[in-house]
Amino acid sequence: MNTLKNRVNLIGNLGFDPEVREVAKGRKVARLSLATNDSYRNAQGERVTDTQWHTIVAWGATADAVERMLRKGSPVALEGRLVHRSYETKDGTKRYVTEVVMNDFQLLPHKAEAAA
After folding, report:
1. What are the start-end ranges of the E strands in the chain?
2. pTM value?
3. CATH 2.40.50.140 fits 8-115, yes or no
């Protein structure tokens, strides 16, 4: 069997402008929130849309590109890997985080542009 990789592919819209900051030696990190939608029919036959919010992190050159190209509402296709981590708050509480570390992305046309 081929080696399986930790790979995530998502298509959605940004919930807010990317938060970009500089870390050690000028390296940038960008944080984004991506909304994905899934539609299905419930037991009554009504169409229901389920929106999931994903925390996305981009580093280095990818963070630079995110800063230049993406804004709140931007439709985007992205590829990355799923990462689970934990940290301790100032009051000693342990927190757990799941995020997608983005490797690459593609800005998609807005629906109004696609219809034109």
Report:
1. 8-14, 19-22, 28-41, 47-59, 75-88, 94-107
2. 0.84
3. yes
Residue-wise pLDDT tens digits, 55-110? 999 999 999 999 999 999 999 999 999 999 999 999 999 999 999 999 999 999 98
Backbone Cα Rg of the chain? 17
Listed by start position, the domains of the chain span 8-115
Per the structure block, which two tokens stand in for 15? 């919930």
For 68, phi and psi rounded to 5 degrees?
-75, -35
Beta-carbon contacts of 33 under 8 Å, excluding residues fewer than 6 positions away, are 14, 15, 16, 53, 54, 55, 56
Structure tokens at 91: 């009051």
Q: What is the longest distance spanned by two Cα atoms in the chain?
A: 57
